[in-house]
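Structure (tokenized):
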């Protein structure tokens, strides 16, 4: 056990804090900074963050709490002073009481300890991938791209890491896990005789094949080339929007938000367990969304969440019917959910039509927004178009400018998804997501 955790526990004991949580995360990261394909600098970095939460019984069924990160290198006296300060602060942040995960939860993990030889924790086999192996795959792939003199990498950065997490609480729960992850910062340039533009991406991986990354960057290079050819987006009024990039995840994050226990408890969501969101029976697509414990390629395959809740595969939405809420221990407890957890990975089940079949109608496919947002509470949609493809009457126009807008709750009945699926970070979603009757404001005829 590390000195900082020992010192925190000693301070908690001395101050007679009966209910507490400690989260400790150490990240070993390899960082590579490339200008074009020349390595400008690289470094290895280790960071550690240790957070403590104290709880205070305020009587009459109320519980106070306060949290802080304890600076690394703190002396025992400083740690004790910080925790004493938290006890005072806890009196001003009061909520109805709830119980932390305890020994009964610990038993659920016992069968998985030592599984796949991964520090006694996460069960995904790919969590055994080393930082060196992951970084090597990414660097190798970036050295073999379909670049040209007019479409090329401006710069890229690679951050490959191994993360070790530890969670402990006053009820005896003591958990650990280790998992890999990587983030890349990609800047692609495209130019012609008149101008030069940049495209930016920030993909994340838990594992990644060289071919997968080359395909991803190759598509980005094509987008750059097409952006230079784009004409002003016409005034389309109501049209069908097709999403085939990570922006589609914003749509499904709205659905997840409506099933978040905190939003339900606060009456920010009206979705009810067992009651279909398709109240009139008019939706063209029944949606099923699952919480996934392990998702191949995800950088967030976890055994437990930040409060020691066991991460499991759970059906959240089944054919438009909410089946269970998810979220923090506090709000799950308020709703009577004893085995809930945060959602890290999720899957949206594909539909009955293929991507090719969905593409038979007229649609605007937008692959590059300045930003694409779906408000997680209201479902309001807004996005400025940087690059799109307007498919109509058997022809395709490359367009840029203008915007899309609408209200997802009003447009859900016209939502259609492909049978094929694709992973983006922590999400496995349909390869194609279509929203009918969205408003497209153009800047040209």
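Design, position by position:
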């Amino acid at each position: 056990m590390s000195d900082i955790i020992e010192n925190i526990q000693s301070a908690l004991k001395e101050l007679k804090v009966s209910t507490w949580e400690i989260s400790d995360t150490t990240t070993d990261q390899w960082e590579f900074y490339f200008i074009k394909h020349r390595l400008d600098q690289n470094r290895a970095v280790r960071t550690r963050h240790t957070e403590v939460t104290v709880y205070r019984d305020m009587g009459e069924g109320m519980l106070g709490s306060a949290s802080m990160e304890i600076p690394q290198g703190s002396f025992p006296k400083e740690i004790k002073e910080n925790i004493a300060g938290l006890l005072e602060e806890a009196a001003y942040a009061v909520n109805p009481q709830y119980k932390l995960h305890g020994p009964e939860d610990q038993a659920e993990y016992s069968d998985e300890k030592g599984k796949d030889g991964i520090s006694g924790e996460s069960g995904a086999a790919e969590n055994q991938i080393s930082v060196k192996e992951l970084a090597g795959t990414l660097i190798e792939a970036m050295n073999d791209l379909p670049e040209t003199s007019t479409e090329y990498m401006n710069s890229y950065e690679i951050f490959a890491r191994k993360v070790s997490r530890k969670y402990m609480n006053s009820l005896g729960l003591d958990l650990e896990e280790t998992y890999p992850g990587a983030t890349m910062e990609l800047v692609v340039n495209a130019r012609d005789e008149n101008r030069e533009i940049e495209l930016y991406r920030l993909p994340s991986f838990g594992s990644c094949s060289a071919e997968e990354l080359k395909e991803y960057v190759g598509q980005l290079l094509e987008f750059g080339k097409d952006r230079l050819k784009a004409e002003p987006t016409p005034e389309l009024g109501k049209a069908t929007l097709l999403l085939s990039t990570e922006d589609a995840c914003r749509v499904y994050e709205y659905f997840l938000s409506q099933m978040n226990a905190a939003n339900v408890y606060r009456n920010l969501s009206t979705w009810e367990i067992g009651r279909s969101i398709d109240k009139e029976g008019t939706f063209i697509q029944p949606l099923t969304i699952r919480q996934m414990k392990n998702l191949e390629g995800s950088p967030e395959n976890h055994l437990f969440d930040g409060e020691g809740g066991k991460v499991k595969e759970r059906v959240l939405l089944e054919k438009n019917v909410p089946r269970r809420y998810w979220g923090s221990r506090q709000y799950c407890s308020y709703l009577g959910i004893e085995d809930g957890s945060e959602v890290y990975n999720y899957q949206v089940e594909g539909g009955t039509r293929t991507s090719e079949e969905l593409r038979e109608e007229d649609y605007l496919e937008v692959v590059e927004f300045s930003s694409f947002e779906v408000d997680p509470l209201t479902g309001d949609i807004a996005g400025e178009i940087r690059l799109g493809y307007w498919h109509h009457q058997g022809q395709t126009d490359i367009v840029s400018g203008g915007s899309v807008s609408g209200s997802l709750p009003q447009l859900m009945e016209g939502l259609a998804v492909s049978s094929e699926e694709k992973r983006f970070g922590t999400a496995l979603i349909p390869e194609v997501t279509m929203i009918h009757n969205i408003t497209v404001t153009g800047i040209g005829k």
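Reviewer-requested clarification: Residues 237-441 form one domain. The chain is about 20% helix and 40% strand.
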